[in-house]
């Protein structure tokens, strides 16, 4: 049985979304970050920094959302599904995974950390304008290669679109205005039934027993 350790509205949603796109059977185990559950021994054994997501698949325990999603798509996906059939196009998917997490997401996460995620004494509001500027720079770089028409790699939705769509939705939650074509692309990603199922699964797991 595959088990996903998750917390709603975090990066674990990417993994739940991937699991749903692949039609896999899995258990969704809520980790109460607000109550400090992630910093207790059992979860620290799964993740050295006490974060989510964590995936347990048999003897394999994985953390880092992009690595987990990539593993799931590689192990359980059909060729030409979330990962393209050709080596070259799989490399292009990886290119966009690294760009999304390394360029776009890091600027958004810097803003989130210094607005609410870090302890109050560690927040530095002065970095927020710079982080917002960094995100806009990354968005402009994205638009030089992809303006939102079609999909990132090939002619159908792939793992690259899943991570980019999720990250762009974070940007909208942070009150960032996207170019019209990218907003339309984000909405196409967000309208996928597998995402709705993933959101519902994480929320259900978080409800008191």
UniProtKB/TrEMBL annotation:
<dbReference type="Pfam" id="PF02798">
    <property type="entry name" value="GST_N"/>
</dbReference>
<dbReference type="InterPro" id="IPR004046">
    <property type="entry name" value="GST_C"/>
</dbReference>
<protein>
    <submittedName>
        <fullName>Glutathione S-transferase family protein</fullName>
    </submittedName>
</protein>
<feature type="domain" description="GST C-terminal">
    <location>
        <begin position="86"/>
        <end position="209"/>
    </location>
</feature>
<dbReference type="InterPro" id="IPR040079">
    <property type="entry name" value="Glutathione_S-Trfase"/>
</dbReference>
<dbReference type="InterPro" id="IPR036249">
    <property type="entry name" value="Thioredoxin-like_sf"/>
</dbReference>
<dbReference type="InterPro" id="IPR036282">
    <property type="entry name" value="Glutathione-S-Trfase_C_sf"/>
</dbReference>
<dbReference type="InterPro" id="IPR010987">
    <property type="entry name" value="Glutathione-S-Trfase_C-like"/>
</dbReference>
<dbReference type="InterPro" id="IPR004045">
    <property type="entry name" value="Glutathione_S-Trfase_N"/>
</dbReference>
<dbReference type="Pfam" id="PF00043">
    <property type="entry name" value="GST_C"/>
</dbReference>
<comment type="similarity">
    <text>Belongs to the GST superfamily.</text>
</comment>
<feature type="domain" description="GST N-terminal">
    <location>
        <begin position="1"/>
        <end position="80"/>
    </location>
</feature>
């Amino acid at each position: 049985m595959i088990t996903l350790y998750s917390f709603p509205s975090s990066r674990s949603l990417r993994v739940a979304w991937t699991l749903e796109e692949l039609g896999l059977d899995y258990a969704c185990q809520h980790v109460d970050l607000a109550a400090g559950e992630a910093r207790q021994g059992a979860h620290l054994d799964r993740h050295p920094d006490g974060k989510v997501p964590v995936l347990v698949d048999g003897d394999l325990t994985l953390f880092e959302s992009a690595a987990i999603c990539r593993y799931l798509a590689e192990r359980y996906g059909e060729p030409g599904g979330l990962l393209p059939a050709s080596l070259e196009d799989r490399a292009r998917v990886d290119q966009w995974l690294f760009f999304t997490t390394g360029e776009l997401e890091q600027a958004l996460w810097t803003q989130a950390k210094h607005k609410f995620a870090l302890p109050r004494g560690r927040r530095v509001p002065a970095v927020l304008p710079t982080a917002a500027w960094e995100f806009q720079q990354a968005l402009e770089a994205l638009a030089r290669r992809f303006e939102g028409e079609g999909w990132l790699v090939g002619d159908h939705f792939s793992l690259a679109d899943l991570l980019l769509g999720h990250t762009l939705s974070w940007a909208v939650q942070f009150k960032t205005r996207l170019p019209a074509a990218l907003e339309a692309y984000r909405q196409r990603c967000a309208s996928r039934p597998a995402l709705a199922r993933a959101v519902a699964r994480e929320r259900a797991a978080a409800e008191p027993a």
